[in-house]
Amino acid sequence: MAELSFFVGVIGNIISILLFLSPVPAFIRIIKHRSTEDFSSIPYICTLLNCSLWTYYGLIKSGEYLVATVNGFGIVVETIYLIVFLIYAPKTMRIKTGILAGIMDVVMLGAAIAVTQLAMKGEGRINAVGITGAGLNILMYGSPLAAMKIVVTTKSVEYMPFFLSFFSFLNGGVWLFYAILVRDFILGVPNGTGFVLGAMQLALYGIYRNGKSSIQYEHLISSSSNSHMKGNNKSLSNLI
């Protein structure tokens, strides 16, 4: 069982690394254009905090070194993303990003470590860190719900990248399986949530993959509105 859990954990690490690297094309674009355009820094700030908490969890809980190593890699990657963002962001956005990153990734993380180290011991400390990380993880997994709403509304998957949904599904599934093998409920709940939401995204992708793009959708609405207005104008002219 130990060998199987290690093997599954290694696969989970590989998939997680692919997820961490998925924003690379966006940052290549930022560097190329020397502008952050409409990209937001919030996902990277939250992911950095999430990775930091799970690295801490992996370090204080015996046998969870696979969790610690992959999230340690995530800390490095997300830090690089934020540095690039700060370099190319407008001054106002740079200040806001710096303040938010300072609050979440320094103050909040430092407070969590200090409280759990000074006021808690043993299983209580492990559970407190794990539950905090799990809660943040669930919020992050739930962030695509807005994109899913757009997909249903527009009947287009334009704003829900397939590979991000696919790897989120795989990542949640593999880490859920790992959590079952090592009997880690705290690790299993957020990844089970991610697995279900990833499956829902893939289902939507299958339903709407041949749908109209947002531009076509807007054009269709515009054409329909124009036709409706013309019809109303014609009716009015007949009445007059």
From TrEMBL:
<comment type="similarity">
    <text>Belongs to the SWEET sugar transporter family.</text>
</comment>
<dbReference type="GO" id="GO:0051119">
    <property type="term" value="F:sugar transmembrane transporter activity"/>
</dbReference>
<feature type="transmembrane region" description="Helical">
    <location>
        <begin position="65"/>
        <end position="87"/>
    </location>
</feature>
<dbReference type="InterPro" id="IPR004316">
    <property type="entry name" value="SWEET_rpt"/>
</dbReference>
<dbReference type="GO" id="GO:0051260">
    <property type="term" value="P:protein homooligomerization"/>
</dbReference>
<dbReference type="Pfam" id="PF03083">
    <property type="entry name" value="MtN3_slv"/>
</dbReference>
<feature type="transmembrane region" description="Helical">
    <location>
        <begin position="126"/>
        <end position="147"/>
    </location>
</feature>
<feature type="transmembrane region" description="Helical">
    <location>
        <begin position="99"/>
        <end position="120"/>
    </location>
</feature>
<feature type="transmembrane region" description="Helical">
    <location>
        <begin position="6"/>
        <end position="30"/>
    </location>
</feature>
<keyword id="KW-0677">Repeat</keyword>
<feature type="transmembrane region" description="Helical">
    <location>
        <begin position="42"/>
        <end position="59"/>
    </location>
</feature>
<keyword id="KW-1133">Transmembrane helix</keyword>
<comment type="function">
    <text>Mediates both low-affinity uptake and efflux of sugar across the membrane.</text>
</comment>
<keyword id="KW-0472">Membrane</keyword>
<dbReference type="GO" id="GO:0005886">
    <property type="term" value="C:plasma membrane"/>
</dbReference>
<protein>
    <recommendedName>
        <fullName>Bidirectional sugar transporter SWEET</fullName>
    </recommendedName>
</protein>
<feature type="transmembrane region" description="Helical">
    <location>
        <begin position="187"/>
        <end position="208"/>
    </location>
</feature>
<keyword id="KW-0812">Transmembrane</keyword>
<dbReference type="InterPro" id="IPR047664">
    <property type="entry name" value="SWEET"/>
</dbReference>
<feature type="transmembrane region" description="Helical">
    <location>
        <begin position="159"/>
        <end position="181"/>
    </location>
</feature>
<dbReference type="GO" id="GO:0012505">
    <property type="term" value="C:endomembrane system"/>
</dbReference>
<keyword id="KW-0762">Sugar transport</keyword>
<keyword id="KW-0813">Transport</keyword>
